[in-house]
Amino acid sequence: MFEAEDLCLISTPAWNIDASTTPCTCSDFCPDGNFVAYSNQPGVLSIVSTYFGEEKNRFTQNLTTFPLTSCHFHPSEPDFVLTTSKDGFIFLYNYESGECPLLTRHLGSNLLAMCIDCLGETFAIACADGSIRLYDIENMTRTKALVKMTQRVATSQVNNIYSVVFHPEDSNIIATAGWNDRVFIWDIRSGNPERYIAGPHIRGDGVDFRNDCIVTASAREKKQIEVFDYGTGKKVREIMWDVNRANGSCTVNTLKIARNGLDLIVGGIGSPYAQIFEFTSGRIIGQTGKMGNSISSVAVSPYGSSFFYGTENGDSACQMIRVKPK
Asked: WD repeats: which residues (predicted)?
């Protein structure tokens, strides 16, 4: 694994996307890192080349004009990408054929976040009523609803869930978080949260796993980027936003770690920059170019060599990191 001082962020973006006047609400890299999915227009999902920014496909539909809240490529069938809208529509697209072979809709509450398990068999949606709904991805049928048990009474998590993520190796484990300053660790088999981590204040897609660690991006002035031990829930270390480099603070609320654990990208409200850190040491690798507004969505390629970031105005860019020449 490379050290932070061995890596450099190429200052010029590989490509840019013009502002759309509506936020970039979600983004994701495909499993081989060759394509990026993103949405910066309500109800519209675009697939572009990682290296040149050329549009591979653009999916529009006439069922909803609400923002897309999440998008994720299928982990083992990379031609497929799953996306969800705020008003509950769930679409499975094939970006090679341009078709939408499956769709369904969750009714009853707004849909705030979504994730797919490591096997690509199940996906989870986080709803505005605080519940988590599990679906079979092959036929888009709901299989289970998770709610928190309090004194033998089933209740939903009181506050909105803004981030939901499966454990990268155990499809029975889900982490969820919102603005109630807790990260809940759920076991699908029992249907209940087994424990929680107190402290993180999550206001976006700001929770991720890496090996036996949970990493959080909290929307607050201090203790913003924290690493916790998954087993004990104890804080391991903290990664500091570089205020001097960014010429100001940032209320971080979106974070993604490369699948190989090399690096992570963080962004948020109040700063037109995203910052990239080496995960193991927490040292900063670099900072993106200045954007037109606060960062609203970030993604990192599986090998940690490419980064996508979009803003509240919809303008987006992709930058690369490389090993410094000896």
From this structure: 154-196
pTM summary value:
0.93
Q: Whose structure tokens read 């050290």?
A: 3
What's phi and psi for 243, nearest 5 deg?
Answer: -65, -40
Identify whether the C-beta of residue 180 lies closer than 8 Å to the C-beta of residue 159. Answer: yes
Residues 6+ away with beta carbon under 8 Å from 140: 90, 92, 102, 103, 104
Whether 182 and 231 have beta carbons less than 8 Å apart is answered as no
What long-range pairs does 243-250 form, CB within 8 A, spacing at least 24? 245/273, 245/275, 245/284, 245/287, 246/271, 246/273, 246/275, 246/287, 249/221, 250/224
Give residues with Cβ within 8 angstroms of 187, minimum separation 6. 172, 173, 193, 194
The CATH number that applies at residue 209 is 2.130.10.10
Number of compact structural domains in the chain: 1
Kindly report, residue by residue over 132-174, the tens digit of the pLDDT. Answer: 999 999 999 999 999 865 444 344 445 689 999 999 999 999 9
CA separation for the pair 196, 260 (Å, rounded):
26
Which domain, by its residues, includes 244? 4-323
